[in-house]
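Problem 12. The chain below contains 240 residues. Write out its predicted structure in token notation.
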Amino acid sequence: MALLGSTALFCAATPVKAEELTEGQKKEIEELFKQLVEKHPGLIADSVTNYYREQDQKAKENAQGKVKEYSDFYKQTNLPVAGNPDGDVTVVEYFDYNCGYCKKAFQDISKLLEEDKNIRVVFQEMPILSPSSKNMATIAMAAHKQGKYFEMHTALMNYRGPQTIEAFMGLAGKQGLDVEQLKKDIGSGDIDQAILKSMEMARSVGITGTPGFVIGERIYPGYIGLDGLKKAIQEVRSAE
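Solution.
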């Protein structure tokens, strides 16, 4: 133990490069390290666990800061929304039209909108699953320009047919959209920019898969069900 103490003291007081150590010193350090691990086998595992726990905590704190930073953005009136524009609680959903759990979440959101007339739901496109996801997101945002986002969103969430542009356009026509204008708007760069911004914001708040929710100032990655949504909304109201 005396040797370990003296070596540790030397290393702490006089940092040296590995190549400056003699072969004898290297073997001595390796042997001391081996003895330390044998005597305290959980030391390294604990150290790694603590490191990742600290990193996870920092990531959560950073994400929480981002949510507060984005609060004004979520309040914008030009976003795709449903429900009460002046609702006391805003539910932000990040989703992909090809995500099975997002389709389940859509049913939950629909019930929530029927039961609670004082919520505002903001829809944020996050097309990560396939090229057709991006096509659908783009068409939905183009429909938003015609004031029919929720109609198109509903149609796409319920859609089970071929994943082609032609099929999506046919679906848009059934929602009363001007298809020719839709095609023109799809080519506008602002839609791609809006979708890209939505995806970047999702990642920055720690949402890497769909669905994901921001309710109040809390982040809910993953599917939480109707009861989970109601509970999160109630927590926001109780805190006010």
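Discussion. Strands lie at 81-83, 89-95, 119-125, 212-215, 218-221. Students who got a different answer should revisit the alignment rule from Section 12.3.
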